[in-house]
Design a protein that fits this description.
The structure is a single chain. The protein has helices at about 1-10, 45-55, 85-90, 125-150, 155-180, 200-220, 240-255, 260-265, 275-295, 355-360, 365-370, 380-385, 410-415, 495-510, 525-535, 545-560, 565-570, 580, 600, 635, and strands at about 75-80, 310, 315, 330, 345, 375-380, 420, 460, 485-490, 495, 585-590, 610-620. It is mainly α. A two-stranded antiparallel sheet has the order 1-6. It has a two-stranded antiparallel ribbon with strand order 2-3. The chain has a two-stranded antiparallel ribbon with strand order 4-9.
C-alpha cells in the first residue's frame, strides 16, 4: 500500500503546453516537480489542459500494451499451448493472481513507469499501474483550481468536467475487476499514511455516479462547437464530453444494478436475473438521454456502416466513409486511429507501428502469419451465439439452422467476424508450402487445425484484424505492412454498447416494452437498431421474461464479441462459475462439399455441406465463488486491517 500512497501523494507537474493530442507526449519529457512553480499547471486553460492531457496519455492500449497481448478472459477465446503463460490461459487455470504481474494484460499492476512523465510509451501503460497516480492528479487539480486558475467560465467548466470524469473512470475500471475500493476524492496530505477503509461496491458506485454527473453537467456535447474547442479544431475527437460522461454514468448504474453487485459472489446461477430495479431505472435514464440526443441528431455520434462489397475481406461498399471493420482496424488511411463516429471513449494511440510489429499477425495460422505463436482463436461454444439471419438463436426450434449446412443463412456479423472453413484465406498466390491454406482448412484434420500453431477450435476470428494480415497478402505495402499504414485500436466504449446497456436496463423495468421516459426507444427497439444496421432479423415477440433477457445477453455477446467485455459481463451476471460458461469447445466436422477444394474456388463457402457436426470439450474452468473478484495485491493488504483482501484469496 505504501507504493499506492506514494503515487496518490506525489503528483507530477506536467510542463506547460496547450496542445491537441498530437503533441500529448511533448510535455512528458520533464521530470515531475522539477523547477515548476506550484501554480504553473493550474493558472490558465492552456497550462491546465496540458496537465489533464497527461491523464489521457495514461489510458492503456488494450491491443498494443506489450509485444503480444491478451484481453478476452471469458468463455470467448482460447490460444494455442505456446501462449500458456499469457493471461488468458492463466485465468482458465484459476490463477487470478496473474493479473498483477502479467504484462500482456492491459489491466496489470505494473509499477515501472508509475509516473507516466518518465515513461510515455504504450508499453509502460497499465490500468492499475496508473490509476492511483491519475486519481491523485485529479484531486490535486480540484484542490488547486479555485486558488490559481484565471479564465472564462466555459474554460473552467470544461477543465472541471474532464477532471471529475477521470476521477470516476479510473475508480470504475478498477472496481469492475476488484470490487469496492477506497474512493479517493480528496488530496491526501504528504508525509502521512492515510487509513482509507474499503467501501462496498455500491458505496463506490454512488461516489463514481456523483462525479460522472458533475462531468455531464459541465461538459459540452461537442468540443468543436465551443469557443475553447475551436482553438484545437481537428484535435478534439478523443476529448471527454457530455456523451462520454452520461454513457459511463449509465454503465456505472447498470453495473450497480447487476446481480453480483446486488447479491454478492455465489455459485448456482439462481440470482442471475435478479437486478435492482432502482439502479436499473437510473441506468436507463442516463443511457436513454444519450440515445435521445443521438436519435435526434444533436451529437457527432452515429453507427458505422455495415455495407460491404465483400464482407469476408472487409471490402466496404463505394461511398462508405467509415465501415464497421474500421471501428477496430484501419489501413491505407495514413495511420488513422480506428473508431470513427461510433467510438465514445478511446485513449491516444501514437504507437501505430506496434499494429504490424506483433499484434496484427497473431490471429491466424503461424505458418502464414509468421509472428509470435500466440494465436487468438474464438471458442466454438462462443461462435454458437452468432444466430441466424432471421434473428433467432441456433437452438431455437424455428431458427432453420441445419447442421449439414452450418454456415448458411447466419447472422451477417458471423461472416464479418469469423473465419470458417472454406473462406479464401489467401487472396494472392501462396507458395507451394502454403498452398493447402489458400482456402481455410478448418474441418477436423484440415490444413489449419494444428493445435500447436493454428486453430484448435475450428475457427479463427477477424473482427478486429482482417484475415489478409499474413505474409502473402501483406507483403510490401499490403493491408498490414508498414506501407499500408495499419492502425489497430479497441475502443473502451462505442455507441452500440450504449444501446445494448439501455436495452438491458429497460428490460429490467418492463421486458421488451420497457423504456425510460428520457428515451424514444423501448428496450427491444434499441436492440433492433443494431440488427437493422447489419441486416439481421428483429427479436422475436415470443421472447419474454428471462428468455428475453437471455436474448439481450446473446446480442451483447455477438455485437461486442472479442472486444474485452465478456469476462465482466459473466461476472456481473453471476454466470462466471456456471457450467455452460466455464467450458471451451472445438467444432468438429467433415467436409462433404469441397473435399478437394475445387468447390471453394467456384462457390460461396457458406453453401458448403458438412457431416458429423459436433463439439468437443477442450477444457473446463474450475471456478469458485472467490473468482468473481480478482485478488488485491498482497503487499497492499498487509499495510492496515481496513484494506481487506477479497474473500477466498
Amino acid at each position: 500500500m505504501e507504493k499506492i500512497y506514494k503515487s496518490l501523494v506525489a503528483v507530477g507537474m506536467a510542463l506547460v503546453m496547450m496542445t491537441g493530442f498530437s503533441s500529448c507526449e511533448d510535455y512528458l519529457d520533464k521530470e515531475p516537480a522539477s523547477d515548476v512553480a506550484a501554480d504553473t499547471p493550474f493558472k490558465n486553460f492552456t497550462n491546465m489542459q496540458g496537465y489533464i492531457e497527461e491523464i489521457y496519455n495514461c489510458i492503456p492500449d488494450k491491443a498494443k500494451c506489450y509485444w503480444t497481448t491478451g484481453w478476452n478472459l471469458g468463455d470467448d477465446e482460447i490460444q494455442n499451448p505456446q501462449a500458456d503463460e499469457v493471461i488468458i490461459h492463466q485465468i482458465d487455470l484459476g490463477n487470478f493472481f496473474a493479473w498483477q504481474t502479467n504484462l500482456q494484460f492491459w489491466f496489470a499492476a505494473k509499477r515501472d513507469g508509475l509516473n507516466p512523465s518518465s515513461a510515455p510509451g504504450e508499453f509502460n501503460h497499465r490500468l492499475y499501474g496508473h490509476a492511483w497516480y491519475c486519481i491523485a492528479k485529479c484531486n490535486k487539480a480540484l484542490a488547486s483550481i479555485d486558488e490559481y486558475f484565471t479564465g472564462t467560465t466555459e474554460e473552467k467548466n470544461m477543465l472541471l468536467g474532464q477532471i471529475y470524469f477521470f476521477r470516476a473512470w479510473w475508480h470504475f475500471e478498477m472496481m469492475q475487476f476488484l470490487g469496492g475500493l477506497p474512493y479517493v476524492d480528496e488530496e491526501l496530505p504528504a508525509g502521512e499514511s492515510p487509513r482509507l477503509a474499503r467501501l462496498s461496491y455500491l458505496e463506490c458506485a454512488e461516489k463514481a455516479a456523483a462525479d460522472f454527473k458533475k462531468a455531464a453537467e459541465l461538459l459540452p456535447i461537442d468540443w468543436d462547437q465551443t469557443t475553447v474547442g475551436k482553438r484545437t479544431l481537428g484535435k478534439n475527437e478523443l476529448r471527454i464530453n457530455k456523451i462520454t460522461a452520461l454513457s459511463y454514468l449509465g454503465k456505472n448504474y447498470l453495473w450497480a444494478a447487476s446481480p453480483l453487485m446486488q447479491h454478492g459472489a455465489q455459485t448456482g446461477g439462481g440470482k442471475t436475473y435478479d437486478y435492482s430495479r432502482e439502479y436499473a431505472q437510473l441506468a436507463a435514464d442516463a443511457l436513454g438521454e444519450v440515445i435521445a440526443l443521438v436519435e435526434s441528431g444533436q451529437t457527432q455520434y452515429e453507427f458505422a456502416s455495415f455495407d460491404y462489397k465483400n464482407v469476408y475481406d472487409h471490402e466496404k461498399a463505394d461511398g462508405v466513409e467509415y465501415s464497421y471493420s474500421e471501428l477496430f482496424f484501419t489501413t491505407g488511411r495514413g495511420w488513422l486511429q480506428p473508431g470513427g463516429k461510433e467510438a465514445i471513449l478511446r485513449g491516444p494511440s501514437a504507437g501505430w507501428s506496434y499494429t504490424r510489429y506483433n499484434y496484427s499477425r497473431t490471429f491466424g495460422p503461424n505458418q502464414l502469419c509468421a509472428q509470435d505463436n500466440h494465436i487468438h482463436q474464438p471458442t466454438a461454444n462462443y461462435v454458437n451465439y452468432y444466430g441466424m439471419a432471421n434473428g433467432l438463436p441456433l437452438d431455437d426450434p424455428d431458427s432453420d439452422f441445419d447442421p449439414a449446412h452450418p454456415f448458411k443463412d447466419r447472422d451477417p456479423r458471423f461472416y464479418h467476424d469469423i473465419v470458417f472453413d472454406g473462406i479464401e484465406y489467401v487472396k494472392g498466390k501462396p507458395g507451394e508450402a502454403d498452398a493447402a491454406m489458400k482456402y481455410a482448412g478448418l474441418a477436423t484434420d484440415g490444413s489449419m487445425r494444428a493445435v500447436a500453431n493454428a486453430s484448435r477450435t475450428g475457427y479463427f476470428y477477424q473482427k478486429l484484424v482482417p484475415h489478409t494480415c499474413q505474409k502473402v497478402d501483406a507483403n510490401g505495402s499490403g493491408v498490414d505492412d508498414y506501407g499500408g499504414n495499419p492502425h489497430a485500436y479497441i475502443p473502451y466504449m462505442r455507441l452500440a454498447d450504449v444501446y445494448l446497456m439501455y436495452a438491458e436496463a429497460a428490460a429490467v423495468l418492463g421486458g421488451q416494452s420497457g423504456k425510460s421516459s428520457k428515451c424514444p426507444l423501448s428496450s427491444v427497439e434499441a436492440i433492433n437498431r443494431l440488427r437493422d444496421r447489419v441486416g439481421a432479423g428483429h427479436v422475436a415477440a415470443k421472447f419474454a421474461g428471462n428468455a428475453y433477457m437471455d436474448e439481450i445477453r446473446r446480442e451483447r455477446a455477438v455485437e461486442l464479441s472479442f472486444e474485452g467485455f465478456r469476462f465482466n459481463d459473466l461476472q456481473r451476471w453471476l454466470l462466471l462459475t456456471e457450467p455452460k460458461y466455464t467450458v471451451k469447445t472445438s467444432q468438429e466436422f467433415k467436409r462433404v462439399s469441397g473435399a478437394d477444394e475445387t468447390f471453394f474456388a467456384d462457390n460461396d463457402p457458406r453453401d458448403a455441406q458438412v457431416a458429423d457436426w459436433h463439439e468437443e470439450v477442450i477444457l473446463n474452468r474450475n471456478f469458485e465463488s472467490k473468482h468473481y473478484w480478482f485478488p488485491l495485491l498482497r503487499d497492499d493488504t498487509y499495510i492496515y486491517a481496513e484494506f481487506e483482501q477479497n474473500p477466498g484469496w
